[in-house]
Write a structure and sequence with these properties.
heterodimer; A: about 60 residues; mainly alpha; 2 helices; about 0% strand; B: about 525 residues; Sodium/glucose cotransporter; globular
Chain lengths: ~60, ~525
């Protein structure tokens, strides 16, 4: 196959290419999906930032 | 190659890096910025930074040259790098790591483990292991970069080493992880373009896709006797089962590096640099394509160099470069590629080294600063950013010292040693922290310690590649390695240490009290 007779080599190539395809398909299918309840304005992020500023000031 | 032109190109490149480092510095205001790039990285920057950190110069030149010597079997490493290093890592580890890391306010990998198991000891010990093992890995890249600058500018090696270290330290110390990731993304892009061109042009020069492979297959009868004795069956064939090269390829390279990637602290921390799992979902594509091009393409070209060297000089690649595996890829590029590409490729190699090194410096600094010093001496009066910066300076000095003083035999093994130690010590604990709620604090602590101790024992007393240059086994027992029955001396330490740390994790978990449900709910909410 394509000048490579040993299946142990070309199967490696096929698996590598399939993995890249899996990465692409996964990204495209989940492009806008998120596990987080509100990824764009997480309240805890804001609270955490405030708390961190406070700690930094204290230090 | 014109030294003046190359020097000019390198200076322009350094200016670009300095500019990106400066942007990172300007945008770094808080600890979160400094250690986690503000937790709002763009998916492209995150993925390129992950990939460029993962792929160092030795992955391109060293493994590419190894493919020139041993053939295309390395494609299995490419497969594992993409499938485990990107797909599994991002989808099954990255998303949950980001969420738990945010819930527990973790800024580093040791802090992630420490907070997940409410244990200061786990954080401190993990930080110490990283700080002790990583300088060896960093020294490999540092020496490679300094040698490269030495040859470009024709300057003294010590001067090149100091110059390279100063440039690297400047943008890592000032810009924190933002500086590191911005420069990584630019460096990754340069690497990507160069390696893409390298493969296309190589096939063009060798008469096309199938013709080039067929020519290489037809050379199987030219395999030198010493390599054939090690199991080499030709450059388009997998080595003979149970031969020396088969064991090295399967245990050291494919499993050691392929699986070791999952528990690399400098990579894990990148999952926590994005705002939501949506960014990670988007980054999977960039990461997968990047790794395929940056490793798969160069390993394929590495094997195919034999066709070129044989057709033009009647010699195999290894013979054409005087037996030095590391020279196969650079020599092939010098002979085959157009002049402008040679300059660009040199920049790509410098990029590969710098992107890996910058993350190593940052991880070492945060490990000793945030995870060790700040935990042991909480009242230093300095803020985390300042402590991490001092930690980076300390880590850089140790790497420099190691690179300068330790024998090359040990330094050359630095990457494999670090990958192996990370996998054996952190992988079981890391997987359990995400997927096994029953696992206990004591189990994780003892799993980390047992993985570390077994790795150290195997490196010092069993695995020939390290026990020989270290010389501890020879000094204590009068022989280079304890078990001289094949294949014990060439089996990667990971193959022994990983089962030990897994076993300890499971056994200790079942003899200790399970963690509280309320705390677990907080972790995984």
């Amino acid at each position: 196959m394509i000048g490579i007779p040993d299946p142990a080599i070309w199967i490696g190539y096929v698996l590598a290419i399939l993995s890249v395809i899996a990465c692409i398909v996964y990204s495209v299918k989940n492009w806008n999906k998120s596990d987080d309840p509100a990824p764009d304005a997480p309240e805890r992020e804001i609270n955490w930032e405030k708390e961190e500023d406070k700690i930094n000031e204290m230090l | 190659m014109n030294t003046f032109t190359l020097g000019l190109v390198v200076i322009l490149y350094m200016l670009l890096i300095a500019y990106l480092g400066y942007i990172g510095y300007r945008r770094t205001k808080t600890t979160k910025d400094y250690l986690l790039a503000g937790r709002d990285s763009h998916p492209f920057i995150m993925a390129m930074s992950y990939g460029a950190t993962f792929i160092s110069t030795s992955a391109i030149v060293g493994f590419g040259g190894m493919a020139g010597k041993f053939g295309m079997g390395l494609i299995w490493l490419v497969f594992l790098n993409i499938f485990i290093g990107i797909f599994i890592a991002f989808v099954f580890f990255g998303r949950i790591t980001r969420r738990v890391g945010l819930n527990l306010d973790a800024h580093t990998f040791p802090e992630f483990l420490g907070n997940r198991f409410q244990s200061k000891s786990i954080q401190i010990i993990s930080g110490l292991i990283i700080f002790i093992a990583m300088p060896l890995y960093a020294a490999v890249v540092l020496i490679g970069g300094a040698r490269f600058i030495e040859s470009i500018f024709q300057i003294d090696f010590t001067l090149a080493l100091i110059f390279f270290t100063l440039i690297m330290s400047a943008y890592v110390i000032a810009g924190g992880l933002k500086g590191v990731m911005y420069t990584d993304a630019a460096q990754g892009t340069i690497m990507f373009v160069c390696l893409l061109f390298l493969l296309i042009f190589s096939y063009f020069k060798l008469g096309g896709f199938s013709a080039a492979h067929q020519a290489l297959t037809n050379m199987a009868n030219l395999v030198p006797a010493d390599l054939a004795a090690q199991g080499h069956l030709g450059w388009t064939a997998f080595p003979k089962i149970n031969s020396a090269w088969w064991w090295i390829l399967v245990t050291n390279i494919i499993l050691g590096v392929g699986i070791g990637v999952l528990a690399q602290p400098q990579l894990v921390v990148r999952f926590m640099t994005v705002r939501s799992s949506r960014e990670l979902n988007r980054a999977v594509m960039t990461g997968g394509i990047f790794i395929f091009v940056s490793t798969g393409f160069v390993y394929t070209v590495g094997a195919l160099t034999n066709v070129w060297f044989y057709e033009t000089s009647g010699k195999l690649a290894l013979d054409a470069v005087g037996g030095n595996v590391d020279k196969i890829i650079p020599e092939f590029i010098n002979q085959v590629m157009p002049a402008w590409f040679i300059y660009l490729f040199m920049i790509a190699l410098l990029s590969a080294g710098m992107s890996t090194l910058s993350s190593q410096f940052h991880t070492m600094g945060s490990a000793i600063g945030r995870d060790v010093i700040e935990k042991i001496f909480p009242k230093t009066g300095l803020n985390t950013m300042m402590i991490a910066r001092l930690g980076i300076v300390f880590g850089v000095l140790i790497s420099l010292l190691i690179g300068y003083k330790l024998p090359m035999g040990i330094i050359a093994r630095g990457t494999a040693i670090f990958f192996g130690i990370c996998a054996a010590t952190f992988l079981p604990a890391y997987i359990a922290s995400l997927y096994w709620k029953r696992v206990t604090r004591s189990a994780v602590l003892w799993s980390i310690i047992s993985g570390m101790v077994t790795s150290a024992f195997a490196l010092g007393f069993l695995h020939k590649s390290e026990s020989l240059p270290l010389g501890i086994c020879k000094a204590l027992f009068g022989k280079d390695f304890l078990i001289d029955k094949f294949p014990w001396m060439i089996i990667d330490p990971l193959i022994l240490a990983l089962p030990v740390s897994v076993l300890v994790l499971i056994v200790v978990t079942f003899v200790t009290r399970p963690p509280e449900k309320e705390f677990l709910d907080k972790c995984f909410k």
